[in-house]
Specification:
By secondary structure, this protein is mostly helical. Helices cover 75% and strands 0% of the residues.
Length: 76
């Protein structure tokens, strides 16, 4: 297999995966889910627990520093 052929196949695979993700998000939206929140949940779930805890702690510190109430609902 030549390099251009491999690159073409890879590009086609990426395009198919992207289209599948798009269709999945459209289906979720049609079922009443907020796609923006779904994307955030997926992003957060990719982080390990320690990283999530550290970010949550920093968020709390920053919000306390500016005396802003923390949002009630938070992603996973």
């Amino acid at each position: 297999m030549t390099l251009p052929a491999f690159e073409r196949i890879r590009a086609e695979e990426i395009k198919q995966l992207t289209e599948s993700k798009k269709e999945s998000y459209q289906e979720a939206k049609g079922n009443g889910y907020d796609v923006k929140i779904l994307r955030e949940v997926i992003r957060v779930r990719k982080q390990d627990q320690k990283e999530r805890d550290e970010k949550e702690t920093l968020l709390d510190i920053y919000l306390q520093a500016i005396k802003a109430p923390r949002p009630v609902a938070k992603a996973a």
